[in-house]
Design a protein that fits this description.
single chain, DNA Cyclobutane Dipyrimidine Photolyase, subunit A, domain 3, five-stranded parallel sheet, 18 helices, 48% helix, 6% strand, binds flavin-adenine dinucleotide
């Protein structure tokens, strides 16, 4: 597994996946064959989460080769990210509550021996220990493994889900406030109330191709409960006056600006914002910070090729850009937190078309969202 931090690598990787493996995705995707055999899944998340490859590009290339019916499962999975993003956007308090919970749990990180054993891969559960090593080494885990990992963390090791989600954010190249926080909440049983995900030894055995047997797991735990519930706000946002955008601020969630329609209008200069660990509440592993930085540099090079002026600046210099009116919306997470915590109020946000299309359908469950997938696809 090698996640080169370039658009050219991600595009070539995507094309190879589409040409050679996409057809079997629906049947093969749940198997974790190990980190040297990942052809059954796309491994695109480090790129999609940074906007290097956009969903519409994936759909266009995939549907050029196969009909919707053949690759429906893959399209649905790609749209799970949009669904989680929209779901969180409509319930912004949840992210604030999560960060507050993390602060309250700070002591456990020093004193809870189960936690200390878990994060160093020193539990009595062999597969879990292997996954901790893999997470730290590759900065990626298979989706099924993320589910098993979270389930063991919560129900067997009896650790708070919030600290597990923080560990993932720290080490994953694709760490994403929506997919990660809501993925952990889903496993815990907080997303679909009362419905939690309990990993079983036989399921892990089957989907790791018999790598692990007789895993000592807790099989009878109840779902985690909470007295907080989150109702959806209305999403009523439109992009207007795009012709006026001559300079724009870009965060690390939309790193394919050179393909955006603003470049065909009046865009002349892009400010790429680097957010290293100085201002983050969840401190990222240095490899993750470097991955993000390299993706920014790759974006800068592509802007240069298109004769669009650019500057890479640190997030704490954002206030100095007070004459710049526009920014691509960074979505809920630490970049948006920086903007609101520092009272940067003059920015007008430009939204990705895909988000404007998908997020209004995120008020209810995924089943309802799924019904609207054909409408979303038609519009893009
Ligand atoms: C506890 C937990 C935490 C997670 N944390 C993150 C995270 O921080 N960042 C992140 O990008 N994904 C997260 N996921 C979702 C999912 O595990 C990854 O997106 C997926 O494993 C990425 O591998 P892939 O690109 O090979 O996926 P593929 O199976 O090839 O799927 C293609 C694309 O679909 C999207 N996708 C697939 N499954 C999901 C899903 N369950 N939720 C949302 N999007 C999905 C991703 O964009 C992915 O790249 C988490 C899942 C769980 C259960």
């Amino acid at each position: 597994m090698n996640f080169h931090p370039t658009k050219s690598h991600s595009s070539a990787h995507l094309q190879n996946f589409i040409d050679n493996h996409l057809k079997n995705y629906a049947y093969e995707r749940n198997y974790d064959y190990g980190d040297n055999n990942r052809e059954n899944i796309s491994c695109m998340s480090p790129y999609i989460s940074h906007g290097v490859i956009q969903e519409k590009e994936i759909f266009k290339l995939s549907l050029k080769k196969y009909s919707f019916e053949i690759i429906e499962k893959f399209i649905q999975e790609v749209l799970w990210r949009s669904y989680w993003k929209g779901w969180l956007e409509l319930r912004p308090i949840l992210w604030k509550d999560y960060l507050k919970d993390l602060q309250d749990l700070e002591n456990q990180k020093l004193n809870n021996s189960n936690y200390l054993k878990a994060i160093s891969g020193n539990t009595s559960i062999e597969c879990f220990n292997d996954w901790v090593i893999e997470l730290k080494k590759n900065h990626y885990l298979h989706n099924h493994t993320r589910m098993w990992f979270a389930s063991i963390w919560i129900f067997t090791l009896k650790l708070p889900w919030q600290l597990g989600a923080e560990l993932f954010m720290k080490y994953l190249f694709d760490g994403d406030p929506a997919s990660n926080t809501l993925g952990w909440r889903w496993v815990a049983g907080l997303q679909t109330i009362g419905k939690h995900y309990l990993a079983s030894s036989s399921n892990i055995n089957k989907y790791t191709n018999n790598k692990y047997r007789d895993i000592p797991l807790e099989n009878h735990s109840s779902a985690i409960t909470s007295d907080k519930s989150y109702s959806a706000e209305k999403f009523n946002v439109k992009n207007t006056q795009l012709n006026d955008v001559k300079e724009i601020i870009v965060f690390d969630n939309y790193l394919s600006v050179e393909e955006d329609k603003l470049c065909d209008l009046n865009l002349r200069k892009v400010y790429l914002i680097e957010n290293d660990n100085t201002h983050r509440m969840i401190k990222l592993d240095e490899d993750v910070v470097k991955f993000k930085k390299d993706l920014l540099i790759d974006q800068a090079n592509r802007l240069k090729d298109k004769n669009i002026d650019y500057e890479i600046i640190q997030i704490d210099k954002l206030k100095l850009l007070n004459n710049i009116q526009y920014a691509y919306y960074p979505t809920i997470g630490e970049n948006l937190d920086f903007i609101s915590n520092n009272n940067i109020e003059n920015l007008k946000f430009v939204y990705r078309d895909m988000d404007l299309l998908a997020w209004p359908y995120c008020e209810k469950g995924f089943f309802n969202f799924k019904k609207n997938i054909p409408t979303v696809l038609k519009s893009i």
